Structure formats: structure tokens, C-alpha cells
Amino acid sequence: xxxPRDAAGPLGRGPRSLLGSALAAAATCAGLLxxxxxxxxxxxxxxxxxxxxxxxxxxxxxxxxxxSAGFPSLVGTLAGxxxxxxxxxxxxxxxxxMPGPAAIGHTIGLFSDGIRLIQRSLVPMAAERSAELVVxxxxxxxxxxVDALALGADVPAxxxxxxxxxxxxxxFLGFPAxxxxxxxxxxxxxxxxxxxVVPSVGDTARARQSATVVGGAAAALAxxxxxxxxxxxxxxxxxxxxxxxxxGAFGPVRLSGDLDLRDSLGRRSQQxxxxxxxxxxAAVSTSAAGGATVGRxxxxxxxxxxxAGGQTSSAPPxxxxxxxxxxxxxxxxxxxxxxxxxxxxxRPAPDDWEQSQLIGPGARAGQVPDPLDPRVVQVEVTIGELxxxxxxxxxxxxxxxxxxxxxxxxxxxxxxxxRATTPGMxxxxxxxxxxxxxxxxxAAAVVAPPGDADYLELAQTDHLAEVQAFAQQLTARATTPxxxxxxxxxxxxxxxxxxYDTQVPPARSGDAVWDFxxxxxxxxxxxxxxxxxxxxxxxxxxxxxxxxLPGDSRAxxxxxxxxxxxxxxxxxxxxxxxxxxxxxxxxxxxxxxxxPPAWSDPLANVSSGGxxxxxxxxxxxxxxxxxxxxxxAPGASNQGAGxxxxxxxxxxxxxxxxxAAAVAAALMRRWRxxxxxxxxxxxxxxxxxxxxRRAIAWTDATTPRAAVTTVQRRFAQQTGKPLDRAxxxxxxxxxxxxxxxxxxxxxxxxxxxxxxxxxGTVKHAVDRELSGRSRRxxxxxxxxxxx
Length: 787
What we know:
Blueprint: H1 16-31, H2 44-65, H3 71-88, H4 101-120, H5 129-152, H6 160-164, H7 167-173, H8 179-197, H9 203-232, E1 259-260, E2 272-279, H10 282-285, E3 328-333, E4 335-336, E5 340-342, E6 376-383, E7 393-394, E8 398-402, E9 406-409, E10 414-417, E11 426-432, H11 438-443, H12 464-474, H13 481-493, E12 499-500, H14 512-519, E13 521-522, H15 524-537, E14 542-548, E15 552-556, E16 559-565, E17 569-577, E18 581-584, H16 590-593, H17 602-605, H18 649-673, H19 680-693, H20 704-719, H21 725-743, H22 752-770
Parallel strand pairs: 12-13
Antiparallel strand pairs: 1-5, 2-6, 2-16, 3-7, 3-14, 4-5, 6-11, 8-11, 9-10, 14-17, 15-16, 17-18
Helix pairs in contact: 1-2, 1-5, 1-8, 2-3, 2-5, 3-4, 3-5, 4-5, 12-15, 13-15, 14-15, 19-21, 19-22, 20-21, 21-22
């Protein structure tokens, strides 16, 4: 007699439950393929699949032992928790742990690290152990839900709900998996649905049905093989375009004119937006090896006046790289409501322009670029997955040759089309690289830009006065608009003050700049907006430009080819200077943007008098002061204020004992190995603290190099004699090392022993001469608190 559990009915009864568990596990494992483009290759996929297969065996065995629909899910949940604790509760990979309080704490901490890694990472995310734990836990949870719905509750159709969760991040982030992944994930689910409706029949009927199915499948396969070549040869077939599933990101890249500072850059793209090749014009490439001879450069092109007119130079050609082109700007924004940038009102239709002549900033506009000029480079652009009605062009003077209905807006310096760009579209630029320096901009006047837009407009937010006061504090020592801009840029750019992060903290007020100055985290939109708004509070006309960073390069014949993807989308502030037009500054940290432009590079523009604003000294003017309205940092907790649950007391005692032992071991290890390792920034911070206690201080608008001069001057004022030679030399070496670490492409870092020696030399000299003095009388005041 047949077992009653083998009768027609639910999937959770009889031998078909074993097949159902196998299909549920297969659907879950195949669903993990949806994450293959979001996470770098690693052990995460095999680990998650192994956990799911083992769990399927456990739930299937539990289902044969009990009749309760929830019993297998309960057993599977307990097995999954224990398995995760054993596998990930150890201090390192490959070291299984015994389930207990320590394993629980370590697993929770590792899981939290994985969540933070997901929030901060760009696609593809590094396949670290913490990320693997998150994927394994998600796979276990999805399988248990699929198993409970399909086999426990006998509603297999609803099993699609947990399975689809694997695909949501891929779709929302624009990185769908391949068509094979969709097929492999859908097939087990469809078989699971089919299994739920197939009736249970006798052996004879089952054999007859099986033969029918196999025979029909074989006939269909034979027909496809025989008729395939015939069908593919039909003329109409060539005109049919079949859909391609999951081979690229979700849709073309578009640059939004509404930049909301509350949004994050979670939607990153690996799509190729465009490629461009930078090369020398043919006339320059074939010129004599000695270099081209050109006439004296116009000051508006970046050459500082002062040489005799008509003087010639024979400088070698500018290397054909991306710095000769700069970021490609698509459009600019002027109107800011305190939270969001908005496109400017509709302007008159742009006019045609002479495509052989230079357009853009500078006095050379309207001239034909000279191919013998070593500053002229050829740029050939090919559009990829970009749908934009503004043409990405260099912010430098350029001649642009493009076919189609495109016009030029000379006020905004934009090339605007009646239709958007399309894949495969090509255009060419001859870019005139400016020889612009900080000295040129320091001597230039800041005037009202052309047009009717208000580049000094400020949103009347609740914290505008505080933002303005902070901008004035940062630029207190600046004497020109250029120096003010440098002070703002270098404060924002310093990694000691801000962290580049594509995940934006939630808004806490109606003033985005105020929130950003408190949170100290953001990406290019936050940095560009903060500098633009603070510059406007100082009376400096500013706007925000949106476009693309140069991207990745490879050498090609005659030049370099650069590939720009969606992750090179960028925003930066521009300031208007008389005679030079709109000039780019770069407050976004170097981790995303690399070196700043030459005219705003502190290492190229430091003056001996200290007038030029420095690169954002290590001490923040907000440090050590209460920030009005500030809240706890993310992850901060108020736990510990009250009593905990009694059952956690042994665990807390154990953790406390282990922590005390770890601290004692660390102190013993540190005592044995000598002084702690120092970095340049830490040593500079300590020197500043030592000098600040002796009434020798400087503001954050002072460069390290200028700070050395300030220290020597104030030391002489207090003691009546100069700082001894050894201490002055040590301080200068430390300042130079700090600048190297912050801005040099390949800095040469001193050893920790050298930093300790320099720090000790300066501290000993200052303590010896100023040991009895205190901060009273005429000592400088501490900078006031800022937002």
C-alpha cells in the first residue's frame, strides 16, 4: 500500500518534497547570480551556495520527521544561525568558533562592517569577508522563506517574492545580470510551480506520461536543428532586432539639471559614456624636434605680463594628456534654493558659430587655433551611452567641429542641441591649453559676469549668517578674491577636515551647506556647492559646472585614449575673473579628482609671504569647539547610561576582562617596541598643539610653509632672539614633508624615527625658551567656533 503522504496534494508531503527542496535551493543559488556584477569575484558565491545546499538537506530531513508545516523552518533557522556562528564567529577566516557570546558579538560586528562596506562602496564592491557574511545571511533568509512558502504553506507562486530580492539591488543600481543568470534563476522556480500541479499517478501512467514528454522534447529539438538554418536565411529575419538581456547598465547616462544635495551617488554606472583621443595636431607632430617657436602669449591666455613684447620661446610641446583638456563640462547651474540646484530659466535658442574658430574664455576667442602653437591639442570624441542635449566640451578655449543641429550659447559657454547625443556620434575639438598661474588670477579683478543671471544670489536659509561668518573666518588672512577662493578650496579639500563619501547623511535642516559643514561627509556636489555658496557670501561670482572627469587612459598611436564611464560624473565650482572668464577650482578631495588645476595647486602657488591660502592645515578651526546643533556621529550610541539585562552580566564581565587583557598586552607591546609610529600629519598636529600652548598659533588659511615663517616671527617676538638653527631646520623639514604627503603624486615619506626626532627638537627648543610663560596678555586668540 502506498504511503498516504505520497498521494496528490501539497509539495511538503511524500518524495516530491525532496525534489521541491532541491528546486528551492537551486532557485536561491541561481538568484545569487544577480549580484555577480555588484561584487567582485571571490568566495562569497560558493560560500552562500554551500550554506543553502546544506540547509536544504536539513529542512528536507526535518520534513520527513514531523508533520508540522513550521517545524522544518524552525529547524532550518536554528541550523542556519549555528552554522553562521561557527563559520564567522571566529576572529579570522578559516578559524571556526564555538557558538557562544563571543562568537555572537564577533559575528554581529562583522555583519555591521559588511553593511557599512555596502553603503560606502562603489560598484563592484570588494569581496571582503564582511560582505560575504551579509550575502550568506541573505541567501539563508531567502531560502528559508522560499522553502516555507513553497513546501510549508503550499503556495509556491509566492516564493517569487523572496527570490526577487536578489535582483532589486542590481536593477536599482543599473547593473542587471546576464540573460543566463535570469534563465538559471527562473528555470527552478518554473519547475517548482510545475511540480505543485502535477498529479500523482500509478507507475504505468507515470511511465506513459514520461515517454510522451521525452518524445515531444526530442521531436522539438530535431525540428529546431533541421529548420534553424532555413529560418535564419530568410530575408526578413535580418530586419528583426532581438532583445539583449542584462548586458549593460540600466539605460543611458543622463546628467540631471536638478542636483539635490540629499541624494547620494548610489546609482553608479560602468557604462562607457564617451571616449576621446588626445593627440598633437599634425603640424606640430611633424615640426622640428627643437620645438615650435611662438610669439608672446596674451595675458588672457594665462601668461603673466611683464616680458618685453615680441619675445619668443621654444618650449617643448605640451604632452597630449587629459590635463591639456581638463574635465569635459556639459552645462552649468546658477540657481540654488538652499537644498537643490535648478536649471536656469529658458534662454533664447543658441546661435550657429564658426566651427574653425576658438570659443570660450580668454582673449583668443574668435581666432583660428595655430597648429604650430605647442599649447594646442587635438581631441577626437566618440559618444557612448550618453543621452545629453548639451555637448561635453573642454572648459578651456576650444574650436569645436560637430555635425547636426547644434548651437552655441556664448553667455553660458555651452553647445546646446535640439536633439540629444546618440551612441557612435563623433566630434572634434582643438583645445588651447592655458598657461594660467595663481599670480595671474591674484592680479585679476573679479567683475560681474556677462548675462542677466545673478551669480551672487543666496538662498535665505536659517543658517546663512553662520555659513557667511565661517567663510569670513576661513579667509581672514586672504587679501584678494583669488586668495579667498584658495582658502575655501584648500579647507574643503583637506582630508583632515572632510571625508569623500558617496553616501550622504540625512538632512537635518533646510540649509545643505550647513549640514555638510557639520557632517563632514559628501561627494562632489556637496564640496562644489559649499565652496560656491561660501564664495558668494564673500561677494565672488560663482556657479557650479557639471560634466565628467577625464577617466581611464591607455596609449594609442599618436596620443592617449581616455574612457569615461558613469562613475566619472563630476561637479565643480567656477569663479569669474576679468580677462580670463570662468575659471575652475577643485574642492573635492584628491581621492576622487587627483591633482587640482595648476593655477589652484598650493604647491605651485605658495608665496613666501604666506598670502596664498594653504592646503587646509591639519587642525580644523571647528575642532575643540562645540558645534551648534551638532548631533552624534553615525553609529554613536547612548548605551551604558542605564542598567542592562541581568543575563548579559557574565558576557559583559567576560568581554571587559578580555578587553582589559588586550589593553594591557597592547601597552606592554608598545613599551617593548618603543615610541609609537608617526605619520607626517600626526607629527604636524602635535607640533601645532605644542606651539599653540605657547601662544604661537596660526589659522587654517595658512600653509605649512607659511606657518614656519609665522612660528619664527612670533618666537622672536616673545623671546627677543630667533629660533635656534636645529629647531628651525626640523620645523621646515616637517612642513615640507606634510606638503609632500598631501599633494605630491608620489611623496617620499620620512621615517617615523625622523618625525620623532624633528618633533622632539622643536618641542625641546620651545620648552627651553618659553617654559615659564603662559597664554595671557597679548597672545593670539583662539579662532571662534564655527558651524
